[in-house]
Specification:
The complex is a heterodimer of chains A (284) and B (249). Chain A has 284 residues and is of the alpha/beta class. Chain A has 2 domains: 238 residues, P-loop containing nucleotide triphosphate hydrolases (Rossmann fold); 42 residues, no CATH class. Chain A is built from 10 helices and 10 strands. In chain A, the strands form 2 sheets. Chain A has a 6-stranded mixed sheet with strand order 6-7-8-3-9-10, with helices on both faces. A 4-stranded antiparallel sheet of chain A has the order 2-1-4-5, covered by helices on one side. Chain A is globular, with a radius of gyration of 20 Å. Chain B has 249 residues and is mainly alpha-helical. In chain B, helix 6 runs antiparallel to helix 7. Chain B is flat, with a radius of gyration of 24 Å. Classes of the chains: A alpha/beta (284), B mainly alpha (249).
């Protein structure tokens, strides 16, 4: 089993006494699209901060590639150069008022040469579709554009893993679609993507593994395809069931469409399926 | 904010910041060396024309930005021109005098100040703050000072945004109806923004750590394609400006 991250009974409590994680154990596959889900305050952010070594478990161990995390200065430097972390609020991540400068911050910290950094910055901005914004001031960008600059700042460090905290929050529908496309591109390039969200529709469509958190403990971890069977866990955590699941179920139950081996993951997939079935029915 | 917008959207945005800084500094030197107020005013006029015609800063906007410092200058010039003499024991008590030397002094001061202001505004309106910081970095100013400037400048926008949002939220709940309410809301606004400053600072620190920061800020400086040519032009124009200022008219 090629687990990229493994958490073994990790507990963490914040200095003010509030609990972050409680005996949390889970594994995240290399090359997966993992979604960390849970209600507000379930410990999603705390979990993600553990993966980048920002927070250190009070008890338990975090393994990266089978090795326990090394919290020394050089160990953290190595970890953070391989694991990029996107915070929820872009304004608390952007350090410089110039887009190009901010994106260059990470790669320069890796000790790379200026020319190398310059190409990395250009590539990263291109990947997130912000090439022509290189010398714009950060304050003139929209929320979604700031988020993309933040992602470019991580990509310029060429990480193997991207950890994103609520990347879709605050974005309108078209911007969410664009970000989803960017994530797809990155995943195709072989990047492991771990993100926190409570948008079950997006998660069902996009992810291949779901980790469900509740009150700081890992309640359940399963393949996204099993979500219809794990639906009761979702409703118990006050998370919505993706609309496509009950609709598809009802259609199958009423024998309006036959059950397929790979159930549709989104409404558009379902409508495509219905169209395809009705076309083949008519041609008979 | 108006200055910042202009700095990012003008015709000379791509001109090397070093060249613009040299022109601005020679303008200031010329302002101080100018023998007569007329010469100083000529220097000021020249720089204003360069800013408006060369860099394409809209005249109306230029005036709006220059107006506050100019009104300050006007007030201080008035105090130089007019002097009050309060003679105890005299029946009329207070006399207001206008002296020739005062007028002369005021004219000198105004000429110099206006020319210096024009030079400073030229730099501020054509060069974004980030590029000025990069320039200072290449001049080997202490890194700590520059890091603080970078963060300070970035935070300016984050906090004005936060303060604006809180203020709007307060106004929406009638927080600024009447003097007493306004004072109270203002107090709460200051308290809330202070807290946010604290949290944002902590969040920024975390974000920097997550990107392998070791405490020092390193950024890539932008490339300017005609830096050498720009520098040569600005050096020669600056030298002319200083020579003109030295003329005995």
């Amino acid at each position: 089993m090629d687990a990229l991250f493994k958490l073994d009974n990790v507990s963490y409590a914040y200095p003010d006494g509030s609990s972050g994680l409680d005996q949390c154990s889970l594994a995240i596959r290399c090359g997966s699209r993992t979604a960390v889900m849970g209600a507000n305050g379930a410990g999603k952010t705390t979990l993600l901060l553990q993966l980048n070594g920002i927070l250190r478990p009070a008890s338990g161990t975090v393994y990266f590639n089978g090795v326990p995390l090394d919290y020394s200065r050089s160990g953290l430097h190595r970890l953070r150069s391989r694991v990029g972390l996107l915070f929820q609020n872009p304004d608390s991540q952007l350090l410089s008022a110039s887009v190009q400068e901010d994106v260059s911050f990470g790669p320069l910290n890796l000790g790379l040469e200026d020319t190398d950094v310059r190409t990395r910055v250009a590539d990263a901005l291109q990947t997130v579709g912000m090439s022509e914004y290189g010398d714009r001031p950060v304050q003139a960008l929209s929320y979604g554009q700031k988020k993309r600059v933040c992602i470019a700042g991580l990509l310029a460090m060429k990480p193997e893993v991207l950890v994103l905290d609520e990347p879709m929050s605050g974005l309108d529908q078209p911007m969410q679609a664009e970000l989803e496309e960017i994530l797809d591109t990155l995943h195709r390039r072989g990047m492991t993507i771990i993100l926190a969200s409570h948008d079950s529709g997006f998660i069902y469509r996009w992810s291949d593994q779901i980790v469900l958190l509740s009150n700081g403990s890992c309640l359940h971890s399963f393949q996204t395809g099993q979500l219809p069977d794990a639906a009761h866990h979702f409703t118990a955590q006050a998370l919505g069931i993706p609309a496509v699941i009950p609709v598809y179920q009802a259609l199958v139950d009423q024998q309006l469409i036959p059950a397929v081996s790979l159930p549709p993951r989104s409404i558009s997939e379902l409508t495509a399926l219905i169209k395809q079935l009705s076309v083949s029915a008519r041609s008979i | 904010m108006l200055i910042d917008q202009t700095a990012h959207n003008n015709r000379w945005r791509q001109v090397s910041p070093a060249a613009k800084a040299i022109f601005s500094i020679s303008g200031m030197i010329a302002a101080f060396l100018a023998a007569t107020p007329w010469l100083a005013s000529a220097v000021a006029l020249f720089i204003v024309l360069v800013t408006i015609l060369g860099a394409g800063v809209p005249p109306r906007r230029f005036l709006r930005i220059a107006l506050p410092p100019l009104s300050f200058l006007g007030i201080s010039a008035l105090t130089l021109v007019v002097s009050f003499n309060g003679m105890p024991g005299l029946s009329n008590g207070l006399t207001i005098t206008l002296t020739a030397s005062g007028l002369d002094q005021a004219a000198h001061l105004c000429g110099r100040a206006v020319a210096s202001l024009a030079s400073l505004l030229f730099l501020a309106l054509t060069t974004p703050m980030t590029e000025i910081i990069t320039l200072l970095r290449s001049l080997k100013l202490p890194g700590l000072l520059l890091d603080m400037t970078v963060i300070g400048y970035r935070m300016l926008f984050v906090f004005s945004d936060a303060a604006h949002q809180i203020r709007t939220a307060q106004a929406a709940r009638l927080g600024y109806v009447g003097y007493r309410h306004s004072l109270r809301s203002l107090g709460q606004l200051i308290a809330a923004v202070t807290l946010q400053v604290w949290q944002r600072a902590a969040a920024l620190d975390l974000a920097a750590q997550a990107r392998c920061s070791d405490g020092a800020f390193r950024f890539l400086s932008p490339v300017h394609c005609h830096a050498k040519r720009d520098l040569a032009v600005s050096l020669s124009v600056g030298a002319c400006l200083i020579t003109i200022a030295l003329l005995k008219v």
